[in-house]
Amino acid sequence: MSPIVIYTAIFGPKGELHEPLHPDPRLDYVCFTDRTDLRSEVFEVRVVQTQFSDPRKAAKVYKILPHRFLSHAHSLWIDGSIQLTALDPSGWLLAEATRSSFTIYKNHERATLAEELAWCHQHGKGDPIRTTAQVARYKEQGLPDDVALVKNGVIFRASHDPAVVAFNEAWWKEITATSLRDELSFPYLAWKREFPYTFFQPSDIYANPSVQIMRSM
Hints:
- The chain is of the alpha/beta class.
- The protein has helices spanning 55-64, 66-69, 89-97, 113-122, 128-140, 162-177, 182-193, and strands spanning 4-10, 28-33, 44-47, 74-78, 82-84, 102-106, 150-158, 198-204, 211-213.
- Helices cover 34% and strands 23% of the residues.
- The chain has a domain at 4-107 and 150-177 and 195-213: Spore Coat Polysaccharide Biosynthesis Protein SpsA, Chain A (Alpha-Beta Complex), CATH 3.90.550.
- The radius of gyration is 17 Å and the shape is globular.
- It contains 7 helices and 9 strands; from the N terminus they run βββααββαβααβααββ.
């Protein structure tokens, strides 16, 4: 077993599994799904049962909690909208592992959580009543306006690091209590818990040659 796994989750009838352009035999690839028709030449497709009727939530639990489902020391989550294009995925991720136990992309399109909330409303992302109340609570607790926003389509973690596990569990609790919009809850929770993380370089997911966006995020 490789110490690093690249994984994703696709639930429900929609969604396509994007094969990496340059598969790396030094890495493991796993896709969690409830679909028996999903096939891949690279990913190990694991057909699983889910307790959630919402396909988004069924996939989200794998995204947020890799330590519950994977034994690898490090994991790279990729959304279903992402294709891995790195020429040397193992080299890229081993280098990232030396920098931080939690690495994500920065949101360069919006500057404040209020702007992120407005974008969610405009694009029908989440229940507007719940997300509005969610952000209002964050502001009441003192979340600064200049808190860094993130793009969570790709997350690289030391999956079993105790601090990362504790953060992931708290993140999932926050998501289940508020909304599935993890890009709203992450900045708040990282700020509240003083959780250390770094950004990929380049930090703009649209400018990073290691990944390609296959549909709008």
